[in-house]
Specification:
heterodimer; A: about 160 residues; mainly alpha; Arp2/3 complex 21 kDa subunit ARPC3; globular; B: about 325 residues; alpha+beta; Thrombin, subunit H; 6-stranded antiparallel beta barrel; about 25% helix
Chain lengths: ~160, ~325
């Protein structure tokens, strides 16, 4: 049962998130573009912690590393961390109303961004502009919509 | 309940241990990746493979825009095509008139600096490349081009457009290459002011319309409107390529450094096509590559010579030589 169905939905949503990440946008929209891949990984680690798990986060991170980031493994580590947070707390997060979920997502995305920030600095490519925290905020704001869309893609009962 | 790591009655761990254990494993793996990527070149191959793997996705994402451009081009009206044709014709005529005297001038120049034949042009090959219309990183100034190692592209190669310097290649995959633009905050370009020859470094400001010159002293001779060209230092660009025009000079009596900004000539935000240039390394104007202090170009006889061994102290009987006589190496 923990087999193909959520995996397929996961694959589709990861490809979708990747496309949304790479889509060229006008510069003001680019700044507020949320981390779609991070949101997707977080959703699946909460909704189906057994199917994807930390591995999903790590692989998505490696994919993201191919596009951005100064060193290979940066997003892999950060997204694996995010997935781990999601899996560890999935029951607590699931039981909350959507507004509180958004707050928790904000905290989780902030942890994710802190990891990226630290690695950027340690590897000698610091990016200190406050704009880099923008996707954390917009990610939390878009969470209800993202969760609703992703929930339609796979129903555990069906 | 044994803990939060277990789901509804069923243990969460399937194959490969608990999430905590797996996370630790992946964390170690990622950190190992980062260290190897940072310290050694081993992962350049991995970069290349990943770039090849993700290129189809990138092409797919950019295809709607490309298709739209194609549609627009194919339905362009006759009038606009004729207007464009006229413009191109006049530009071509101007360029031909300008280059007519080029050969003669090159010959004269060679005679002036004492060479028998004029030097070959420093650029040996060039290749147009298209910018793939995707967003690599919103806060860093990077673009992807559709040329890679199969076209002979190597990391650290000069990228120009028809107005000036655009950037240089960074990670190169088989069919694509990431280009770091001169406006990236991490990019520093050795330039010189064309009017005075003053050398400095132009650093990207993070947006596609300005460069900063943070290392000019407050009394430096630089004015608004000065042209910045590449200085030939740094090993990527030969000297003399246009880079930017100074737009803003602030001098504050309290600050030791002037605040200078410049606007790049290259149309970095609107370009859809750029040029990759290969330089002739035997040309004297070629950018010098640093190779552990050992020069690979130029004349051996006029290279700096190694410091000679310390002379043995002269015997007491002879007249003492001056202590700080400069040692001339035997030639």
């Amino acid at each position: 049962m923990s087999g193909s169905s959520p995996r397929l939905a996961m694959l589709k949503s990861v490809v979708g998130a990747l496309i949304l990440t790479l889509l060229p946008l006008p510069s003001w929209l680019e700044i507020i573009r949320p981390g779609f891949l991070a949101l997707t990984v977080l959703y699946w680690s909460i909704a189906a912690p057994r199917a994807g798990g930390v591995t999903l986060g790590w692989i998505c991170g490696l994919l993201l590393d191919a596009f951005e980031g100064p060193v290979l493994g940066e997003h892999a580590l950060a997204l694996a961390f995010l997935a781990y947070i999601g899996i560890r707390e999935h029951q607590r997060i699931r039981s909350k109303p959507i507004f509180q979920q958004s707050l928790i997502v904000f905290a989780a995305l902030a942890f994710y961004e802190v990891v990226l920030f630290a690695i950027d600095g340690w590897s000698g490519h610091p990016l200190t502009t406050p704009l880099r925290w923008m996707p954390t905020l917009t990610g939390a704001l878009i969470w209800p919509a993202a969760a609703a869309i992703l929930a339609r893609s796979y129903r555990p009962g069906a | 309940m044994a803990g939060f790591a277990t789901g509804a009655g069923r243990p969460l761990q399937g194959r490969g241990g608990s999430p905590g254990f797996r996370f630790a494993l992946y964390a170690i793996l990622s950190i190992a990746f980062m260290i190897f990527d940072q310290r050694f070149d081993w992962l350049e191959r991995a970069h290349s493979v990943m770039q090849a793997a993700t290129y189809p996705v990138e092409l797919a994402v950019s295809s709607p825009v490309a298709a739209w451009n194609w549609v627009q081009n194919s339905f362009a009206t006759r009038d606009s095509l004729e207007a464009e044709n006229r413009l191109l014709r006049s530009q071509l005529r101007d360029l031909e008139v300008r280059s007519m005297r080029y050969d003669a001038l090159a010959q004269q120049n060679a005679a002036l600096i004492g060479l028998r034949d004029s030097l070959p042009p420093v650029a040996s090959r060039w290749l147009p490349a298209e910018i793939v219309n995707i967003q690599l990183d919103s806060l860093r100034q990077r673009v992807l081009i559709d040329r890679g190692t199969i076209n002979g592209v190597a990391p650290g190669q000069a990228v120009l457009d028809d107005h000036g310097v655009v950037g240089q290649t960074m990670h190169v995959g088989p069919w694509s290459a990431q280009v770091i633009l001169i406006t990236d905050p991490e990019h520093a370009l050795p330039v010189s002011v064309a009017r005075t020859g003053l050398r400095t470094i132009a650093v990207g400001a993070g947006d596609s319309t300005s460069l900063g010159l943070p290392y000019l002293p407050a009394n430096a001779d630089v004015r608004v409107g000065d042209i910045l060209v590449t200085s030939g230092l740094g090993g990527v660009f030969p000297p003399g390529y246009p880079v930017a025009k100074v737009t803003e000079v602030h001098r504050d009596a309290l600050q030791p450094l002037a605040h200078v900004r410049a606007a790049p000539f290259a149309h970095i935000d609107t370009d859809s096509e750029v040029m990759l240039i290969w330089f002739r390394h035997d040309s004297p104007a070629a950018p010098l590559k640093e190779r552990n202090g050992e020069l690979t170009t130029g004349d051996r006889n006029i290279q700096p010579l190694p410091v000679p061994a310390k002379p043995t102290p002269p015997p007491k009987a002879t007249t003492p030589a001056p202590a700080r006589q400069p040692e001339r190496p035997p030639t």
